[in-house]
Amino acid sequence: MVWLKPNRPPLTIRASLALLVTACVLPGALSSAYFMAENYRLERAHLSQNAIASARALASAMDKDLASIESGLRVLSVSPPLLNGDLTTFYKFTKDALPYQNISNYVLLDPKGRQVLNTLRDLGEALPQTGNPPVLQRIFDTRQTVLTDLFTGPVTGKPILAMGVPVFKDGQAIYSINVGIFPERLSALMMRQRLPSNWVCAILDSEGKIVARSHEMNRYIGQSATPELVAEARRSPEGILETRTLDGIPVTTAFSRSSSSQWTVAVGIPNEALTAELHRSLAILTAGCVALLGLAVGIAWRFANGNVIAPAQQLRDRMRMVSLGALPNPHAPIASNLEFLALDKGLDDMALRLQEREHDRETMIRRLSSTLESISDGFYLLDHEWRFAYINRKAQEMFSLPGDSTIGKDHWLTIPSPEIIALRSDYERCASDGQPRTRNATLSRKGMELEIRIYPSEQGLSVYCRDITESRLYEQAQQAQRAAEAANKAKSEFLSRISHELRTPLNAVIGFAQILQRDTLSTLSERQARMIQQIEQAGQHLLSMITDVLDVSRAESGTMALSLDVVDAHAVAQNCVDMLRDQAQKAGVRLTLNTPSAPLMVRTDRTRLKQVLLNLLSNAIKYNRTNGSVELTLEPEGATVRFEVKDTGIGLSEHQLQHLFEPFNRLGREFSSTPGTGIGLLISKKLVTMMGGHLSVASTPDQGSKFSFALARHAADHNALTAPVTALRDAPHAAYESQREPDKASYGARTVLYVEDIATNCEIMGGILAFRPQIDLSFATTIEEAKGLLKSHQYDLILLDMQLPDGNGLEFLTSLRKQPETAQTPVVIVSADATEEATIKARHTGAQDYLRKPLDVHRTLALIDKHLHSTE
User: Fold this and answer.
1) Residues with Cβ < 8 Å from 828, sequence gap 6 or more?
2) Distance between terminal CA atoms of the chain?
3) Helix (H, G, I), strand (E, B), or coil: what is residue 133?
4) Is residue 872 a contact partner of residue 747, using CB atoms and an 8 Å limit?
5) How far apart are CA 118 and CA 120, in angstroms?
6) CA-to-CA distance for 246 and 212, rounded, in angstroms?
7) With left for phi above 0 and alpha for psi between -120 and 50, is residue 224 left, alpha or beta?
8) 147 - beta bridge partners?
9) Residue 657 burial by Cβ neighbours in a 10 Å radius (0-12, 13-18, 19+)
10) C-alpha distances in angstroms, 412 versus 369, 447, 448, 503?
11) pLDDT, tens digit, for every residue of 155-189?
């Protein structure tokens, strides 16, 4: 059977190469389009999650801001002038407080809703009797805090919000103290979230009206949000929906409703922003594919012309001319088509002359060979046909080439490295224009970076290759080290500033709460005492979060230092159990310590070990059940001491165990009433690792969890350490007990100077030292004012802030130590900078002690008593 071929003309080489290039480019283009679409889907989902996270964060920040306003109102509601009916003093007090509260005004209403006092009007001036939101009357009915929706202020005539709390006297609500809040305060809170400029963010009151908006706020304030958003926000506490803004922009909106204020935060991402990247990518893909296809076809077309057809014709003509006076060497033909037969004959005719030229070239190479073989750089020669005429041993090592067998081979085929082939245009331009070239190339297979210098010569090109890998790596390593050091320094400075800024307002929250709890002159109701206690607990919780975040940062950056010492593990464990025993009893949990009677000495950091044990025991108590148990067991295991905390709590699932040490992940407990930050276990794990151990965990849901780690046991004579061990056991507990109730001080009259520029901090210190009536406290808000007081008075103690308007506190301390009058005066630094570096620097400068804000009343009194006792 004879198969008949189709009667069609064969494809040319150019057409075949064009089809091949198209077939190679098309699958890549289709794959790229698919991955772009998939990336768009994932990016859209990611942006939506970021939007709802931003809404949650803003709602949380709004709740905290409103809570701070409520706290201020609560403090004013128990003001003695108000309760005693001294409205003139109370009016002055509220006017003085306005600059520190960032609010518009205070209004005092009687039970009939009439304004009694308004800081926007002078005392005694006629006040409007109407226009107040009726919802404020609920304060007298419910005896609870009330937050209004947006309304027009009767005095200012501007959109405003109001919050009010009842004022109780003899168990009756005699007034309500209210505060006006301009929407601009919420707008500023919104701006601090640093959302992208094209995102539309709005805060809605309980009726769905716009209270604050990131774009054109004055235009839309007081208007109702889109019906879809209002309806969806009323149905669920948070979610995502497609809608349009009031100005007609299609957006994907994420919202979160506050559980306390019932206000809603909505964050809208314009759909145009979501699709713009996809459109741009598709446009780039289309243009790239067209350009790549055109370039590839052009290269293939040029390759066919330049490397097959045209060279064959040129070589045939050249060989015909060369062969006019030469005899070919007889040998079998190497090809059957006419073009290559002609090429073969021409090569035979050129053989003799090529041998002569090759002889001359080899003579020259032999003269240079001894010199070139001795240099440390790679070197090779190329003829005009891109063939190796010479290559030294160093170049052979660089490109992993064999020895003499490389001579005569095509350069581009012998060195198939894509990095070298990419420099072909530079080689060709050097050969054509006669100008030297210097380029860098990286051999990815060998991890080597080369500096390649190309020089023209009569025979072709001379190429020098120098290995610059080590010098480049050294330079990159130096740059990376400098960048890492700069980033670490910037991170530390940022966290230090953030800690300082957060501790300053916490000083007011915790300080005032503790002062009110200790104040025996004005009796608080049980409900008020409970509120004050909750304020202090919330402040302590925020302080714990700040400390934990700083610890995580120090551990990750490697700046956390350990103070290693020989420590009695039993004494530390007993101290931790004693400190948490009250917490366990309130939770209905039995807390026990199991340890051998003999001392268990370990070499570790006492403070960090105590921090780890307190965290593990506190978690075991918090997440336990009523009538449950927590056991802390210490037992020797060879050369180590094993610590084990076992509880009968709710336990952890396998999925929760996989995410246990992730920062800020509370494993579903973030919406529970149990306090926590989600980073305590992460810090504990890092601290145990730094102390040479490994924190392991085993848990079963509904049965309990067990955390354990082992530390190296100190090889010492236990008998010799018996006396020190007893001291170590008693010292922490005694120190802790000594700070609990420093209510009395036996020393006589004393004078104290407090140098501080923030009025709130001065008021807190004044409230603390009011418990020491024998102390005469003076204030200075600047260094110059303090210098003036020190010239005319002799003080027993100086309390000094580090950041003052006219200078640095430590520099002022240095000058005090140089003056004979104040060289021996005790100085205690009072600062919100909680870093160890600040404490060490203060002590080196001459400070006797360092008090970190927020101030603890008991600790502050104990420290001041200690220094004032020593002055007797």
Assistant:
1) 797, 798, 799, 800, 847, 848, 849, 850, 851, 863, 864, 867
2) 127
3) coil
4) yes
5) 5
6) 14
7) beta
8) 163
9) middle
10) 23, 20, 19, 68
11) 778 898 889 999 998 889 899 999 988 888 888 88
